[in-house]
Design goal:
Helices cover 2% and strands 60% of the residues. The chain has 474 residues and is mainly β. The chain has a single domain, classed as TolB, C-terminal domain (Neuraminidase, 6 Propeller). Strand 20 and strand 21 form a beta hairpin.
Length: 474
C-alpha cells in the first residue's frame, strides 16, 4: 500500500499522542519477554485485553473492519488460533473476561450493537443488544454472575447464560467500570473536573490538580495573552471489592502574542497602526490518578502524577489502567511528539512528523502499606527494517494492559505499531538527466540535457503491526 502522508497525518492526529519525560527502566525482578506469533493483517486498532483468574489472557482487536480474538496462556504462548468474531464493526469494541476464562465481546455494527459469548474456544450465537444504535464505542464489563455491555449513555446487564435485560440509562460517560457484585462506576469529564457516579445515585467530583482561569486574547488582564486548560480523557478501573482508580489528562497551553506596529508622521503628528502579530507558546500536560474506596472516599490525599511533559507538540493521553485487590494499579500510556506544518488559510495544520512509544508505570503498596510509584518502563521499541529501508513516523498507539500475577505485579501489554517504510522501488523507474550542455541561440543561452539515466522511484508502505510483551520473573 503506497504512502499517503496526509491520511497518515490525520489518522495520527485523531489519536491522542503523548510524551512522558522519564527514563526507561524495568521493575525489580520483572524481565521483558516478547509475545510472538500474533496474527498480522491490515490496519490494526481498538485493542482490548482481559484475564482469567489463572492469569491466562484474552485480547480482541480490529483490523480492516474485522473483529478478532485470541487466547494467550500466562506464559505468553498463544492458545490456539485466533478467532474471527465479526466482519461488521463500525467503532471500538468492548471485552469482558470472567474468572473462568469465558468472555463476552460487545461491538457496534451497521445494524445495531451486538454481543457474543465465547466459552473455551467456541463462539456463541451473536445477540442484538440495541438495534437502533450504530457507530458508537462499546464497553463490556464482567461481574460474578454475568456481564454488562455499555455504550454512549446506556447499560444492559445480563446473567452468565441469559440474553440481555432491559436497557438502563446511566448518563453520558467517557469510561465505565464494574466490580464483581455488579456495582458500576461512570467517569465523565465535565467543566474542568472529572465526575464519578456510582449506580446512578451517588456522584463525586474530582477537581483538577490546579484551578486555572481560561481566556482568549483581549479577555484577560493582558489582552495579548490567551490561556486554555483542558481536563479530559478519564479512564476508570474497579477491583472486586468496589474500590476504583481514575486516571485523566490535564493540559495547559499559554499563548502570548507580540503586536507589530508601523508608525509614520502625518502633518507633524505621529500615527501608528497594528500590522500583524508573532506568537510564542508554552504547554504542560499531565496524566494524573487517584484511588477511591467503595464508599467514594479518596484513598489518596491528592492526585498522583503518572506522567508529565512540557512543550508544544508534546501531549499526554491514551492511558489504560487496571487495579488489583490490594490497591496496586498499573497504567499504560503513550509518549511521543508531533511537529506541524504552518497553518493554512483555514487555520488547519498537517503533521510533518510523528513519533510515539508505549510506557507502563506501576503504583505498588510497600510493606508499610504506603503506595509507591515505580519508574516508567518503555515497552515499545523501534521496528526492524530491511536493508536500505528508512523508518518515518513510527507511532506506537492504543495500549491495553493486564496484570497477570498480583503478587509479583507481572503484566502483559498490547499495542499497535504504525509506521512508514521508505525504500527505493527498482521495479518502477524513472529517467533523470545527469549531463547537460550549454546551448546559445539568438543571443540567449540555456542548458540542454544530453544524457539521461534510469533511477528507481521513491516508494513507501504503511505498516501496522499488533505488538505484545510480557513482564514476568521468568
Amino acid at each position: 500500500m503506497k504512502n499517503n502522508k496526509k491520511n497518515i497525518a490525520r489518522s495520527v492526529l485523531s489519536i491522542a499522542i503523548a510524551m512522558a519525560l522519564v527514563p526507561a527502566t524495568s521493575y525489580a525482578g520483572l524481565k521483558p519477554f516478547d509475545i510472538k506469533g500474533l496474527p498480522q493483517a491490515g490496519a490494526i486498532y481498538g485493542i482490548r485485553a482481559g484475564k482469567a483468574s489463572n492469569g491466562d489472557v484474552v485480547i480482541t482487536w480490529i483490523s480492516d473492519s474485522n473483529l478478532y480474538g485470541q487466547r494467550i496462556f500466562n506464559n505468553g504462548i498463544l492458545d490456539g488460533d485466533s478467532l474471527g468474531i465479526s466482519n461488521d464493526i463500525s467503532n471500538f469494541a468492548g471485552l469482558a473476561v470472567n474468572s473462568n476464562g469465558s468472555f463476552v465481546v460487545g461491538w457496534p455494527t451497521s445494524s445495531g450493537i451486538k454481543g457474543v459469548k465465547v466459552e473455551a474456544k467456541t463462539l456463541g450465537t451473536p445477540f442484538v443488544v440495541s438495534p437502533d444504535i450504530t457507530s458508537v464505542p462499546v464497553q463490556a464489563l464482567a461481574k460474578t454472575d454475568g456481564y454488562a455491555i455499555a455504550w454512549v449513555s446506556s447499560l444492559v446487564n445480563f446473567a452468565a447464560n441469559d440474553t440481555p435485560g432491559a436497557v438502563e440509562p446511566i448518563g453520558a460517560f467517557d469510561s465505565v467500570a464494574m466490580d464483581s457484585g455488579g456495582d458500576f462506576f461512570v467517569a465523565t469529564a465535565n467543566n474542568g473536573k472529572i465526575s464519578i457516579t456510582k449506580n446512578n445515585d451517588q456522584t463525586i467530583d474530582i477537581p483538577a490538580s490546579k484551578q486555572i482561569s481560561t481566556y482568549g486574547f483581549g479577555e484577560g488582564k493582558n489582552p495579548n495573552k490567551s490561556v486554555s486548560f483542558v481536563v479530559g480523557e478519564p479512564e476508570i478501573a474497579a477491583n472486586d471489592s468496589g474500590e476504583f482508580v481514575v486516571v485523566w489528562n490535564e493540559t495547559e497551553v499559554d499563548i502570548t502574542r507580540k503586536v507589530h506596529k508601523v508608525c509614520y508622521t502625518y502633518y507633524g503628528k505621529k500615527l501608528c497602526a497594528d500590522v500583524g502579530f508573532t506568537y510564542t507558546s508554552s504547554s504542560i500536560s499531565n496524566i494524573n490518578s487517584r484511588r477511591y474506596n467503595n464508599t467514594l472516599q479518596a484513598k489518596d490525599t491528592k492526585p498522583l502524577v503518572v506522567a508529565s511533559a512540557k512543550g508544544i507538540g508534546v501531549v499526554l493521553g491514551s492511558a489504560h489502567v487496571v487495579l488489583d485487590a490490594d490497591g496496586d494499579f498499573t497504567v499504560a500510556y503513550i509518549s511521543g511528539k508531533v511537529t506541524y506544518a504552518p497553518s493554512n488559510s483555514y487555520g488547519e495544520q498537517d503533521i510533518i512528523t510523528a513519533q510515539s512509544e508505549v510506557f507502563v508505570k506501576q503504583f505498588v503498596n510497600n510493606k508499610a502499606n504506603k503506595l509507591v510509584a515505580g519508574t516508567a518502563t518503555q515497552v515499545s521499541s523501534k521496528p526492524k527494517l530491511a536493508a536500505k529501508h528508512t523508518l518515518k513516523n513510527s507511532t506506537n498507539l492504543g495500549p491495553s494492559i493486564v496484570v497477570t500475577d498480583e503478587k509479583t505485579n507481572a503484566f502483559m501489554v498490547f499495542w499497535h505499531n504504525d509506521y512508514e517504510d521508505h525504500y527505493k522501488d527498482y521495479e518502477n523507474t524513472t529517467q533523470v538527466c545527469d549531463k547537460f550542455k550549454t546551448v546559445s541561440y539568438d543571443g540567449y543561452s540555456y542548458k540542454e540535457c544530453v544524457h539521461y539515466k534510469t533511477v528507481p522511484t521513491d516508494a513507501s508502505d504503511n505498516v501496522s503491526i499488533l505488538k505484545a510483551k510480557r513482564y514476568n520473573t521468568k
